[in-house]
TrEMBL record:
This is Antitoxin. The lineage of its organism: Bacteria, Pseudomonadati, Pseudomonadota, Alphaproteobacteria, Acetobacterales. Belongs to the phD/YefM antitoxin family. Antitoxin component of a type II toxin-antitoxin (TA) system. InterPro entries: Antitoxin_Phd/YefM, YefM-like_sf.
Amino acid sequence: MRTFSTSDLSRKSGDIIASALQGPVSINQRGKPRLIMLSVEQYEALIHVADNRIAGATADMSEEMAGSIASAIDSYLLETAPAP
């Protein structure tokens, strides 16, 4: 993965975009990775894989586990709901 600094964004935007069209690019700030830039096609492929994993995991889930998760979500929503 190619790496660029945040200051490169203004000076080398064309190079960064060209690199991101070839593969993911890391944008670093103060030497630490802060952003990943990738093409729309790469992003959509990543989301597709994640969606398939989620679908597979939930399809294999027992009724009991699904009920436990739904109950936990309901509890969380009640705890975090704004006061009327």
